[in-house]
Amino acid sequence: MLNNIFNFVTSNIIDYIPEQIIDFFSRKYIAGPSLSDAIKATIDLNSKGIMSTIDVLGESVVNEDQTIFFRNECIKVLETIKKESLNANLSLKPTQMGLVINKALCYENIRKIVKRAKELDNFVRIDMENSPYTTDTLKMYRLLREEFPGHVGTVLQAYLRRTVDDIERLSDKPLNIRLCKGIYIEPYKIAYKNPQLINENYIYCLEKLFSKKAYVGIATHDEKLIFHAMRLIEKYNLKTNDYEFQMLMGIGDELRDFILSKKHRLRIYVPYGKEWLSYVRRRLKENPNIIMTALGIK
Ligand code: FDA
Known about the structure:
Blueprint: H1 2-13, H2 19-26, H3 35-47, E1 51-56, H4 64-83, E2 88-92, H5 103-119, E3 124-126, H6 134-147, E4 152-157, H7 163-170, E5 176-180, H8 195-211, E6 215-219, H9 223-235, E7 243-248, H10 253-261, E8 266-272, H11 277-286, H12 289-294
Parallel strand pairs: 1-2, 1-8, 2-3, 3-4, 4-5, 5-6, 6-7, 7-8
Bound molecules: dihydroflavine-adenine dinucleotide.
């Protein structure tokens, strides 16, 4: 009870906690400020048999030059992965590439990155942001997978009521989907709020994806979902290369070991960069218990 009250109060005041204090908690979730930090983290993960997806932190960009900066940085990530022979790919956010200001610019930026990924035999995952951007993100994914099949994927969120229909709509061609619960605050009208329902929809969507032979990044730290995913993998007789588990940096070390011990493939999301504030605030809101643990209260 006391814990629930603490979580409720904390998650509502996180936006008002000064940046210097949030910085203290950020270290757990991000590799560091520069690409070399993400590369170091990836080398470490690769040495443990874990793949990574590198994310350049930054979102809601409203300046065209800045979108070009992020586009070039993403290309640099792909080129460095190649140069260092790492087992890693790239994740990016549409609003980092200009979706807030200009859809055509955003598409062209992402297209250039995916084109480079194809040249380097790599892969780009387009993250899913909040619901005003869902339709445009899926449209871009559709176009890009047509032009660069096998080199691009996107994300679907189990909390959205539309997701089951999106799977149906998208499954006319081979699908590469990261399935997550969804992290943004969405209205009841379009999103499930009940955690149990979100989980049920997650399993429903996962089974639908498997039945449509999609490649799925099973992105969750929820043990119950991982349990069900492992049963579905067995039911559909999937090979190790037909799917992967995905987790965020800084969360669930024991789960990582468990997944690896069962011989499943695992990829860790490795964010780096100077624009870490929104990302870390979202993570802390999701789990305010971290603040208690760090302060030694729990
Ligand atoms: P849940 O929130 O129930 O957490 C299960 C357990 O994990 C908790 O009990 C706790 O132990 C641990 N945990 C979860 N969050 C934690 C935290 N912040 N700190 C410490 N422990 C924590 N979302 C989105 O909307 N768009 C996207 O593109 C992505 N991309 C993405 C990539 C990857 C690789 C992952 C793993 C997740 C995402 N997400 C995302 C985030 C996702 O939607 C979701 O918010 C988080 O994964 C938390 O949900 P879980 O499924 O882990 O369950």
